[in-house]
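Quick one - first record:
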Amino acid sequence: MNGLPPTPIGNPGRAAIEAVLKPAKTKDVYFVASGNGGHIFSETLAEHNRNVAKWRKIEREIRARQAAEAAAAAAAEERGALLPEGEVGLAEVGGPIPLPIRNPVR
């Protein structure tokens, strides 16, 4: 289609096409992210604004956690302690964190 990118938005699946052809009977007009990968739908602007406020709180919590993780990683790097990928925080005693010994699969 002219004007659409060559990504999933330009190539809808069967479920998306069926949803357009046979939409659910609902009075929901607004939606916002739920914070757990889904959405929250609402019928009124007042209800929507309450849901947006909840989402903004979740966003602030996520950003605060990311900032704390970045600070912990920076402190660990400054002390020369390397964290295994995906790990967050500092070693209790200080110094490098020992990496697990892995046996290669043959």
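second record:
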Amino acid sequence: MTITHAMPALSPRLQKILDALPLQPGLRVLEIGCGPGALARAIAMRVAPGQVLGIDRSARAVAQAMAASAEAIAAGHVSFRQVAAEDFVLAPGEAPFDLIVAVRVGAFDGRHPDARARAWPRLADAHAPGGCLVVDGLAYVLDAHLNAYVPV
């Protein structure tokens, strides 16, 4: 299915992150801390017919993302959910994610170490085998033997 909605305007910082992500058609991507959804929509355009789920702990941010993403939501390319990273779990029947992205998320940038400790296992449970996690431009893979994320 072709996406017809316009590419969202991104800040130079988000554009640089978008361009560096290992995106390809068909991927399932989880964006943590999606804010108003601009990056999630841009990722959705690159991974179509894949899907993007943007999550944020802020109800206001999720409402803004949904309002700005009506066409992409209707097309089934992007969805949003209000939930913190440390509380995220896959919905019943929901497939795991090939790529997880977090940009300036307090649970991963050192601002909230307790949340970080709780979030890592949640992400591991939602991650497809062989997938990648990108936090603030640094890539990690899940090492099944260590049951931990290791830098790429």
